[in-house]
Amino acid sequence: MQHPQITPRFAPEITPSVEELEKQERLLVFRQFTCDDAWALGSLLVEMARERQAPVAVDIHRAGQQLFHAALPGSAPDNDAWIARKRRVVERYGSASYLVGARFRAKGTTFEESSRLDPDEYAAHGGSFPITVENVGVIGAVTVSGLPQLEDHRFVVEALEAFLKL
């Protein structure tokens, strides 16, 4: 029996392109990001997850400090480990964890095969998105874990669009 790859190679017709993912990052930018913003964004994500009965954990970090964390029914301690691994990708690359994985797939490889980073510490799977402040850059990450990776990514993007009223 053949084992599946850690990072699936998706067909391009069902996944967003690298260009589309990069556009999301250009548009989803904050003027500022305070502790109150973290609480409001985290609360929005929790509200959305409760409405959908999504078994997720939600995390927001800024400059190495955890500003928000919630675990909803159906989530597990493993989701916290995934959050940490996906967040480290955002912190290292300054891009969404899903976009980093997509860039490797666009080159015909996977993050695990080519990044030279420990897969126990880094996961280029969807669900962690950079918190970017205009004229400053990436200062943190908002991360969701518990759904399939593309759904985790889309869930965070949807919340950011609503929060930023785009």
Automatic annotation (TrEMBL):
Which segments does the entry list as coiled coil? none
Superkingdom classification of source: Bacteria
Q: Which Pfam families match?
A: HbpS-like
Its family? Answer: Belongs to the UPF0303 family.
For this entry, the protein name equals UPF0303 protein GCM10011578_008620
Native organism taxonomy: Bacteria, Bacillati, Actinomycetota, Actinomycetes, Kitasatosporales
